[in-house]
Amino acid sequence: MSKVRFILFFLLAARAVHAQAPVRIACGQASSYTDSAGNVWSADAGFFNTGNTFTTSHAIAGTPDPALYQNDRWSAVGWSTGKAAMVYTIPVPSGAWTLNLYFSENYVTAVGQRVFNVKVNGNPFLTNFDIFFMAGGQFTANKQADTIISTGTVTIEFDHVAPAVQNPQINAIELLPVTVGESVLTVK
Prior knowledge:
Layout: H1 2-19, E1 23-26, E2 33-34, E3 40-41, E4 52-55, H2 66-69, E5 71-74, E6 86-91, E7 95-104, E8 116-120, E9 123-129, H3 131-135, E10 141-150, E11 153-160, E12 169-170, E13 172-177
Antiparallel strand pairs: 1-13, 2-3, 4-5, 5-12, 6-11, 7-10, 7-13, 8-9, 8-11
């Protein structure tokens, strides 16, 4: 009988995971955004502790949704100011999630001018990350993804590196529930 309960619990839990809604945040945007696939990205409100916004009207290459990459949130605080780093705190149900971080370098003009680290739930996610280098140039979309485990909240911390170069920044954040049958990896 306990084996049947376990199987029933597993099937119900798997069904619940499948029913979880994605979380999409259009960083730096004051209003929601609907992408070319019909997905709604929420406005950048209530998830972060600090930061400024930047907007460009320049075309963004490598994406069907350039408007998603034309706004960003950037952090001027960190190691040099002694203040806390920019952190997004996103409540999501416990379980496995695919984390997609979206970037476009819309300000600096060469490799090495903006380098920063990203931690997810306290673990290194991106180290010495250079948007310009990874995207292959300015005004070009770049997505970094991995599967993470949530215990009810996902925290994404953007840290300056020393010596200071341009500030950490993010254009969009997406959390997609991992469905039954997908592989589950831990953060690097």
